[in-house]
Amino acid sequence: MFNQNDITQPGKPGTLPKAPTGIAGLDEITGGGLPKGRPTLICGEAGSGKTLFSIEFIVRGATEFNEPGVFIAFEEKAEELAMNVTSLGFDLEQLQAQKMLKVDYIHIDRSEIEETGEYDLDGLFIRLGYAIDSIGAKRVVLDTIENLFSGLSNQSILRAELRRLFHWLKEKGVTTIITGEKGDGYLTRQGLEEYVSDCVILLDHRVENQISTRRLRIIKYRGSLHGTNEYPFLIDEEGISVLPVTSLKLHNKVSTERISSGINQLDDMMSGKGFFRGSSILVSGTAGTGKTSIAASFANETCNRGEKCIYFAFEESPSQIVRNMYSIGMDLQKHIDNGLLFFHASRPTLNGLEMHLVAIHKQIKKVKPKVVVLDPITNLITVGSVSEVKSMLIRLIDFLQEEQITVMFTALTLNNIVNEQTDEGVSSLVDAWLLVRDIEFNGERNRGLYMMKSRGMKHSNQVREFVITNNGLNLIDVYLGPDGVLTGSAREAQQMSEETSKVIYNHGLTRKDREIIRKRKVLEAKIATLQSEFESIEEELNKGYVEEELVKEVAGQTRDKMTKLRGGNNTEFTS
Amino acid sequence: MSTWDEYAESGRQPGNVINTIYKLRLFVTGASPNSLRAITNIKVFCENNLKGKYELEIIDIYQQPLIAQKEQIVALPMLLKKFPLPERKLIGDMSDTEKVFRGLGLENAG
């Protein structure tokens, strides 16, 4: 496999000089464009887009790379050609007036011509040479030179002249595209590929299951690395866009930045920060589990941060989604008006898978969003097999990671049993997988959400109840009651009964408190009684003691008086 | 050539018209071998079969490249019969006299 880094840097010394085509995507797979100054063969069946391809090469050369071009038309007249490409916004008349383009219609009618011997195609050379010189052309298209073979019968002369023509064009140094109709078993009917040895591109238009896909393949590109796969391409109102599909390397840079999912509780489940930027997230679940709401909420949050988001809707129309999300409190219309949110709604059956991929690519390249939502990828299965869808999604995820764009897919699971391998087989590819499932219990249906995986971060292993309210989405911790996990009204009932017992419990607490206070009061009263009893006993005891003192004192005084009264023996008495 | 063309031509151009002047233009590219051969061959042819009844103009496309576009010239040398109508284009070095007769709408006398 080629390394894309090598081929996206044209003009390195020693490499083949290339002429950029300006066709979106083609320059990437050819590593810069077609070989400069050499012829390139574009072959394919009728209606595969050869003429358009070549005219876009000329017009883009004139308008974007300032390289005038000559278009030699063998099939359509100049006016017809101009009219055919007006719808693509190519104004051939104006380019001709600006001397950036010259269209020459070459018509050969066999019935008017008699071949009378040896001849050559000098007339073509002179016309071509004159056209190139008159505007200084750098690019030439010969569409379809094989018509010469129907106009002229001498094959050996024609082949010799063609070889001379291509040699001459190389000498002139003009980058040439030759278109050729696909032949039986050969790339072209007249074996033009043998003259053009530098670059051959095959265009293909296939219809499978009534859905058409255009594909392009570089059969050879001498002297240059190139992508070898079949690349789907799209023709729309802006011309051709080619999708360089697989780069099989796994060198994507990663970010450690985290972005919110728009649901706080969901962020909490991922250590409180949300998804990694540039990661891929799968939301799967059965019908009506709110996958779209999760996706829309993610988109809404992205826009709230002021970042751009593209919402690819494969099931509902944009206005339907806007209306539905308004009912749960999300105003997406506001973001659409502010140019932050882009809706791209299409039925999956509109075109093939590859075409969807190209269309998605184109939108992303144009809008340059930070977040992309695909809702739902399950519907793509209607236009391709599981393996095709998977390979498409791998390429899409690859591309988005390269661009550091976060992507959220939603997927419908048809049964209620969680399959380990389901969801279009992308579950192994994505970085984070949210599963929303119905929990049927107690005669009602509730939603449970859990993270099946989330690479590179700590994440909750708990089932949360997922509730959609008027104000948005909400996750509630699933109630673990005595009989197991409870959700919905059972949870509410359980919560209520627990609430009640709490009140009762609280009530009980206060009653006990009062009892204590009362007890204390009683105790305190008792203490007061004892205290006063003690005081009265003390007083009683003290009373006897005082009386004794008094008696003693009075007796003393009496004795003194007595002594004074008795006189003479006073001294003896007192000694 | 289809039979219808032959029929149309023979109807418009009976062999007994004698006084028709053939207006012929020979487009060549300089002095390339094919061109020189074509000039010689057509001159001999006209002298032998249309003596006194033709005007031959020899144009070098290298000198006048715009004519190539106008006259839808791809292969050279080319002889253009302007008159009598219908216009016919003969390419090659005119060495195949049989085809020159047919191309000019002449009966092959010899």
Number of strands of chain A: 25
**CATH homology-level superfamily of the largest domain in chain A:** P-loop containing nucleotide triphosphate hydrolases
* Terminus-to-terminus distance of chain A: 145 Å
Estimated share of beta-strand residues of chain A? 15-25%
The low-confidence runs of chain A, each spanning 5 or more residues with pLDDT under 50, are 1-12
Share of helix of chain A, binned: 25-40%
Low-confidence stretches of chain B: 6-17
Number of β-strand runs of chain B? 4
* Overall tally of domains of chain A: 2
The CATH architecture category of the largest domain in chain A equals 3-Layer(aba) Sandwich
Greatest interface (CB-CB under 8 A), with counts per chain? A-B, 25 and 38 residues
**What is the string of helix and strand elements of chain B?**
HEHEHEEH
Structural class of chain B: alpha+beta
User: What is the CATH topology assignment of the largest domain in chain A?
Assistant: Rossmann fold
Roughly what percent helix of chain B?
A: 25-40%
- CATH class of the largest domain in chain A equals Alpha Beta
Structural class of chain A: alpha/beta
How far apart are the first and last residues' alpha carbons of chain B, in Å? Answer: 22 Å
Q: How would you classify the quaternary structure? A: heterodimer
Characterise this structure.
The complex is a heterodimer of chains A (575) and B (110). Chain A has 575 residues and is α/β, with parallel strands linked by helices. Mean pLDDT of chain A is 83; it is low at 1-12. In chain A, the strands form 5 sheets. A 9-stranded mixed sheet of chain A has the order 5-4-7-8-3-9-10-11-12, sandwiched between helices. In chain A, helix 13 (353-367) runs parallel beside helix 14. In chain A, helix 14 links the parallel strand 18 and strand 19. Chain A folds into 2 domains: 21-108 and 119-242, Rossmann fold (3-Layer(aba) Sandwich), CATH 3.40.50; 258-477, 3-Layer(aba) Sandwich (Rossmann fold), CATH 3.40.50.300. Chain B has a 4-stranded mixed sheet with strand order 2-1-3-4, covered by helices on one side. Chain B is of the alpha+beta class. In chain B, 37% of the residues lie in helices and 22% in strands. Chain B has a domain at 20-55 and 67-77 and 89-110. Mean pLDDT of chain B is 79; it is low at 6-17. Chain B has helices spanning 3-12, 33-49, 65-70, 97-104; strands at 22-28, 54-60, 78-83, 88-91. Chain B contains 4 helices and 4 strands, in the order αβαβαββα. Chains A and B meet through strand 6 and helix 6 of A and helix 2, helix 3, strand 4 and helix 4 of B. Strand 6 of chain A pairs parallel with strand 4 (88-91) of chain B, so a sheet runs across the interface.
